[in-house]
Design a protein that fits this description.
five-stranded mixed sheet, 55% strand
């Protein structure tokens, strides 16, 4: 999920729709704000934590799933 000029800086964890060990590594523009990830007909919302993990020599801020909302038609 890396864009051309974006640096991977976050890992998204948790969701009732994914296994516990599943991680999404991505770029989050504001590391202090809730992040929304579009998945099919909904947005999964992830809240930043104070946790930081290392993956492939990168420090990534941990975001944890908090809820989902459905996209209005």
């Amino acid at each position: 999920m890396q864009t051309k000029n974006a640096t991977l800086n976050a890992v998204l964890l948790g969701s009732p729709y994914r296994p516990d060990e599943y991680e999404i590594v991505t770029h989050v523009a504001d590391l202090n704000d809730t992040f929304k990830l579009k998945v099919e007909n909904r947005y999964d919302h992830f809240m930043p934590t104070d946790e930081v993990v290392r993956r492939d020599d990168r420090e990534l801020r941990v975001f944890r799933y908090i809820r989902h909302t459905y996209i209005a038609e």
